[in-house]
Amino acid sequence: FRYVIDFGNLGPDEGKGGKFLVLPPGYEGPVPDGYHVARTNTYGNWVIWRGYQVDGTTAQAVNATKEKFRIYPLSQMENPPEMTFVNASGQFMNTIHRMDANIFEEINEVVQAEPLMGESPELLGHLAAIGIVKGQPFEPDERMRAILKAAAKAGSVTVKTVISKPRDERFYWYPGESNWQTAFPGRAYTWELDGVTLHDIRAAFHFYATGITPAMALKLVGKGSQYAFTYLDSNGNPLDGSKTYKVNVPADVPAKDFWSFTLYDNQTR
After folding, report:
1. pLDDT tens digits, one per residue of 255-269
2. What is the pTM of this model?
3. CATH classification of the domain holding 116
4. For 117-155, how does the pLDDT look when each residue is reduced to its tens digit (9 = 90+)?
5. Maximum CA extent, the chain
6. What's the domain count of the chain?
7. Domain containing 209: what range?
8. Average predicted confidence (pLDDT) for the chain
């Protein structure tokens, strides 16, 4: 995932609401006035936001979304279509990428659908080496399928190891004192720091999370959000689903809007 733009408290609208225009690669048409404009290198983009509970209910946030949120092509700006909102609560939905050799089929779909400028030439070169090339069919032979199967297996266990028990101290909020980790080591939401691409950190983040914004990485008091997670108990042992654990939370958590504590399954995140 790559950051495009924020809206809300951390966006150019400063929480007052407004109209945003996301322009695709190669767009050279007119840009209407009155929009916060962002340009992206991909055709596919994902928009997410968080609503807050009021008096223990989400009704206000849900109603505000239905009343105010609209998304439509620029060509329909004069007559936007009606929005359809789907309540996904309680519905089965698989949002997890494959962890076997079929992951390469998913990657090929993205390469075919997006422009070349959507990814770095270096990464596209690695993909080309295994037969994933834009405009060409991905048809690995038996030999290559065996290689891809072994590669997917190695990649799966490697990324799980990197995220669950990293050796890089930048992963930890308090190195040497606690096992709580930060989602953005080095506060690098671009996955680059001091001119270096953070390969392990980038892979680890995308194993267990999605969505990137500076608001989650930088210290923006009163506006941003911070995250801490762990795969280990206080003794450094992996968390075990068959056991019961106690978490001590200090009183008066310094959170303006909300704070939460969530348990995830290691397989489905």
Report:
1. 887 888 999 888 877
2. 0.88
3. 1.10.3360.10
4. 989 999 999 999 999 999 999 999 999 999 999 999 999
5. 61
6. 3
7. 165-269
8. 92
As to burial, measured by CB atoms within 10 angstroms (0-12 exposed, 13-18 middle, 19+ buried), residue 185 is buried
Q: Are 159 and 179 contained in the same domain?
A: no
Res. 189: pLDDT tops 80? yes
Q: Is 181 found in the same domain as 156?
A: no
Quick one: tokens of 98? 């494959």
* Residue 192 token pair: 């680059």
| Packing angle of the helix pair 121-129, 103-113 (nearest 10 deg) | 130
* Upper half-sphere CA count for residue 11 (Cβ side, 13 Å): 19
The pLDDT-based confidence of 27 (bands split at 50, 70, 90) is very high
Query: Using CA atoms, how far apart are residues 2 and 210, in angstroms rounded to an integer?
Result: 10
Q: How many of the other CB atoms lie within 10 Å of CB of 191? A: 20
